[in-house]
Amino acid sequence: MSRRDQRFRRGTKGRCCECGCILSHWYYEKEGQLYCKKHYWARYGEHCHGCRDTIATGVIMVAGEQKYHPECFTCMSCEMFIGDGDSYTLVERTKLYCGHCFCPGEVSAARSASSLTKRPHTVALVSLPPHAGRGLSVATDLSQETGPLVTVTGLDSSTLSPELLSSVHMGDRVLEVNGIPVLNISPDEINCVIQDTNRPLQLTIEHNPQSPDDPPLSNDAPGQRQLS
Ligand SMILES: [Zn+2]
Ligand SMILES: [Zn+2]
Ligand SMILES: [Zn+2]
């Protein structure tokens, strides 16, 4: 979970660079420019993927690239709130399921609708129990400019539960370990935490069918072309 990068300060007076109103109490600063609250959020605010409104304050729920108000982070099947640390699966960036309602059948249905060969894009938070042998290994690629690229390189089907095997696949990208973005953890620590079977482990995993590791599609045209 990410906490908002909220840049406001209290004190000296200034003017909003957009509307010129005097900023006497709270103001927001970004890249050396001052803003009133309204214009800061108009320009830099995040939009909730659920209700499309601006997320102005407080905690945001993050599933891959999508951000939500906590109250908008609900399962589309049972409509229960999905809390911080609860398992979930977000299919094709839009369909959000709690850990109880997600079943691989949904993925198969989506797959047959869009493409015969690829699983759809998913972001899932999965929990691995302690004391069971991990059954999962990862590799960290530090050559990426955007930060470490952690991918699943090994899955042991005799150790992992069927639900896990339906949510995690070889080559999937690990975004967070126990809620901490991999960007903020050293590669050694990532391995330590993953191999430490005394503790439960939570991984946020992205399966991106458009990732460069997959065989390239025939072209970048929107939609899927199917050969018959
Ligand atoms: Zn303003
Ligand atoms: Zn919302
Ligand atoms: Zn549900």
From TrEMBL:
Domain PDZ: 122-209
Region called Disordered, residue ranges: 204-228
InterPro entries named among the record's database cross-references: LIM_Homeobox_TF, PDZ, PDZ_sf, Znf_LIM
GO biological process: neuron differentiation
CDD domains, alphabetized: PDZ_LIMK-like (cd06754)
GO molecular function (one): RNA polymerase II transcription regulatory region sequence-specific DNA binding
Pfam family, one: LIM
Domain annotation LIM zinc-binding: ranges: 46-108
Gene Ontology cellular component annotations, sorted alphabetically: nucleus
Gene3D superfamilies membership: 2.30.42.10, Cysteine Rich Protein
Keyword terms: DNA-binding, Homeobox, LIM domain, Metal-binding, Nucleus, Zinc
Subcellular localization(s) per the UniProt record: Nucleus
Organism domain of life: Eukaryota
SUPFAM superfamilies with a match to the protein in the record: Glucocorticoid receptor-like (DNA-binding domain) (SSF57716), PDZ domain-like (SSF50156)
Signal peptide: none
Keyword check for NADP: no
PANTHER family reported in the protein's UniProt record: LIM HOMEOBOX TRANSCRIPTION FACTOR 1 ALPHA, ISOFORM B, LIM/HOMEOBOX PROTEIN LHX
Protein's name according to its UniProt entry: LIM domain kinase 1
